[in-house]
Amino acid sequence: MLVQALPKTMTFSEFIEWKPEGTRHELHNGIIVEMNPPLGGHEYIVCFLNTIIAAECFRLNLTYAISKTVLIKPPGAESAYHPDILVLNLPHLENEPLWEKTSTVTQSASIPLIIEVVSTNWKVDYSTKVNDYEDIGVAEYWIVDYLAYGGKRFIGNPKQPTISIYELIEGEYQITQFKGDERIVSPTFPELNLTANQIFRARK
């Protein structure tokens, strides 16, 4: 997703008070970032994964739901993110201190899975958000790089479309990558029958 940085800096509390309704903004270390409308291919993939994951949650009778409006706030940071796909553990939301007034989650138990679909701001997904989601303790984080935007140090050389799955093990992310017709292995949804190419083809 393309981003445009605005010049004003804010605390998280100020950001919540300021944030206009019906718009998509994030706060990155006190800097307001306006999220521009995503490309069509990006949204095709988001819609496809939403459908697949929602169906798996229903099949397994999980108390999970998917949101694109809820914010994630890392601990001790003046930041707030709107992931492309955020899977919420509904029963735990009552333990979230910011939930009722700001629809914001801060605790790992509320967040089984986050997915970001990469656009030109790929550095945020591969560095800033990886670090912050790890600090929160998010158990599983996907980066779906369908146009191979990411740097070679992240997706290899030659660059090709890649799905990176970050699994939290003993407090640190371990990364497994999937390309081509390789079957995705998800710790949260281990019975998911889905290849990397099936996800990439959803953009067409």
Which key phrases capture this entry?
6-stranded mixed beta sheet, 3-stranded antiparallel beta sheet, 6 helices, 11 strands, 27% helix, 27% strand
Write up this protein.
- The protein is an alpha+beta fold.
- The chain has a single domain, classed as tt1808, chain A (Alpha-Beta Complex).
- 27% of the residues lie in helices and 27% in strands.
- The protein has six helices and eleven strands.
- It has helices at 12-18, 40-59, 99-102, 122-136, 152-155, 196-201; strands at 3-9, 25-28, 31-35, 64-67, 71-72, 85-89, 104-105, 113-117, 140-145, 162-169, 172-178.
- The strands form three sheets. A six-stranded mixed β-sheet has the order 4-6-8-9-10-11, with helices on both faces. A three-stranded antiparallel β-sheet has the order 1-3-2, with no helix packed on it. It has a two-stranded parallel sheet with strand order 5-7.
- Strand 8 (113-117), helix 4 and strand 9 form a beta-alpha-beta unit.
- The relative contact order is 0.14.
- The mean pLDDT is 92.
Count of structural domains: 1
Q: pLDDT below 50 for ≥5 consecutive residues: which ranges? A: none
Task: Report the total helices.
Answer: 6
Multimeric organization: single chain
Query: Radius of gyration from the CA trace?
Result: 16 Å
Percentage beta strand: 25-35%
Count of distinct strands: 11
CATH superfamily, please? tt1808, chain A
Query: Which range best describes the helical content: under 10%, 10-25%, 25-40%, 40-55%, 55-70% or over 70%?
Result: 25-40%
Order of helices and strands: EHEEHEEEHEEHEHEEH
Judged by helices, strands and strand pairing, the structural class is alpha+beta
Task: Name the average pLDDT.
Answer: 92
Distance between the termini: 17 Å
Rough shape? globular
Largest sheet: 6 strands, mixed
CATH topology title:
tt1808, chain A
CATH architecture: Alpha-Beta Complex
